[in-house]
Amino acid sequence: xxxxxxxxxxxxxxxxxxxxxxxxxxxxxxxxxxxxxxxxxxxxxxxxxxxxxxxxxxxxxxxxxxxxxxxxxxxxxxxxxxxxxxxxxxxxxxxxxxxxxxxxxxxxxxxxxxxxxxxxxxxxxxxxxxxxxx
Length: 134
Fold this sequence. Notes:
By secondary structure, the chain is mainly alpha-helical.
């Protein structure tokens, strides 16, 4: 196992560690989604799963979730993160030759801003339904 002390100093190294674990899982996946928790990421990256490191890994996964690249779900006792084949991260991990390509994609990726349009469309539809019933 690698020493995780040097990882605490450089956040981008932890990001690349998480991305390389996800890329490995996605490239070797036989199905249409992969599921991880923080400890699994650490074990796949061959680093000791210490609590401080697991917290940083969780932060990286949460930031990926905020960008819409990873889904979060809670089982009875654990928080897990899932990437499915519809995610842009899945396509990039499948096609990328190195973790640096995935890292560059993540740095520049912004979540599409469709929520505002959807909310407007739904509001107009509801108002139309109410007007028809009146």
